[in-house]
Amino acid sequence: MINYREKIADILAPHIEGLERDEILPMIEVPADSSKGDYAFPCFKLAKIMRKAPPMIAKGIAEAIEGEKMFQKVESVNAYVNMFMSKAEFADNVVKEVIEKDEDFGRSDIGAGRTVIVEYSSPNIAKPFHIGHIRSTVIGNSIYKIYDFLGYDTIRINHLGDYGTQFGKMICAYRKWGNKEDVIREPIKSLLSYYTKFHEEAEKDPSLEDEARAIFVRLENGEPEEVELWQWFRDESLREFNRVYDMLGITFDSYNGESFYSDKMPAVVQELKDKGLLVEDNGAQIVKLDQFDLPPALITKSDGSTLYITRDIAAAIYRKNTYDFYKNIYVVASQQNLHFQQWKKVIGLMGYDWADDCVHVPFGLVSMEEGTMSTRQGRVIFLEDVLNRAVEQTRKIIMEKNVNTENVDETAREVGIGAVIFNELSNYRIKDYVFSWDKVLNFEGETGPYVQYTHARACSILRNAGEAVMASAKEGFDASRITSDSAHALIKLIYEMPEVIAEAGEKYEPSIVTRHIVDIAQAFNKFYHDEHILVDDETEKTAKVALVMAARNVIRNGLDLLGMKAPEKM
Ligand code: ARG
To answer: How close is the Cα of 474 to the center of ligand 1, in Å?
Structure first.
């Protein structure tokens, strides 16, 4: 695709004293108000260099570049040079390319030959997979998709929380009060109930804690009976998690979680010692981080057992050695900010300069309208239940609205689950948000169903246009027929999509893509509303169908980057 901004910099450069083309480039603006042009160049900065008043400079530049064929019109307004594109030429370039590249429009190869690890979801074994986990799961999946689209080699890791003293308690509780059938039928609810019972009983009888500790030691030592139970809990939990991943269409390349690093820890502790970083503190081993104004990192407890951070240090080193990553991204709640700050500093102190390539991507809290959650008090909202409810409600809406679909079940699934994903990715990730059913499933707001519906509408127009017109639009079209304000506004947004995707990747912020496809959907609907598309005039019809194809492609590609389906009928 032609990079118009660069082209404009080339055009401006000869007429601007004292600034290089590459300095001019970032100064070119896209005015929010299109009556001020498609691009604008502010001249304030030039006043000193050119020793003239900015409006005078703007006027001079405008006159000098007016004749360029890329522009339909160039104006100077106060200190600005406002540039209006030749709409037909612009439309021709953009729409043609989007149709040609189809699924690959917006794809890039900037990441070629570089490996990026995206770690996300990472729930804890035998604990509920609840609505709070949606965030890491869905944001992480989208970040993975964006990096993949940008040409990086990606590795998706689910760093399962499958290690720790709680498994001693769990095994102890299972042996006392559990039964196999229940665990198979409802693994997490059953295991959780045993675990809760353990805590109740341990209040009365503290010796249970010792028993559990002894069991954990056996587990750590690899005693077959304990390992077998732990493995079984893990498998059953994962089976339950996988049901949710299947619904969301999410997969991983690796489920190496905390337990995977248990045998890699002694070496890490030794390395920390060798590098003179470990300090004893009441029997525990810590790394001091005073120089960074951070509390110390606790590496081993007084009984010698390792901690969450120890396993994360081991994991980072393992990942560097195994994947030689360009970036190692952790999509984990902002509650763990301190943990990741400490962890990164420790890795830096160990002398690993790749600590800077490890990125914690935090996000805010989600709460439910109906009230807060509390695992301990059993007020848990399971993610699976939320997804099922979204599908059910969507099915009802589909029936009421008489939505055009041959397969109600599939459409309800794609739209219902898509709605939850879209909602999740609508705001800046760092913001806390309240999950509201009305907002999620609204077909008219800035929601998933709205964007999917717009995509289906485009598909329906194309079906009505017929194969012959689409084929001829692919061959070529008269772009002067798609230069109306609403067509031009739509084409501009389509043109920006590749930049938007790159920016979303750089900022680890899928919501940038979400917002942009909402803008595109709105612009498309405005175009649809303002203009008759399937007109009698073949030339005009073909050009408009070409634009509809381009819009459909971009919306579909955008939805895919969010991890959503784009049904063709709705
Ligand atoms: N299992 C943890 C939790 O649920 C999240 C793990 C995050 N990843 C990491 N490498 N520490 O809180």
So the answer is: 48
